[in-house]
Amino acid sequence: MTKEKLTEVALRVLDVREYHCEKTLAELYDPDNMPDDLREAHAGVDALVDSIYSKKPYEADEQRLSDLFAMYERMTAEEAAKAPAKKSRKAAK
Question: What are phi and psi of 86, to 5 degrees?
Answer without folding.
Answer: -80, 140
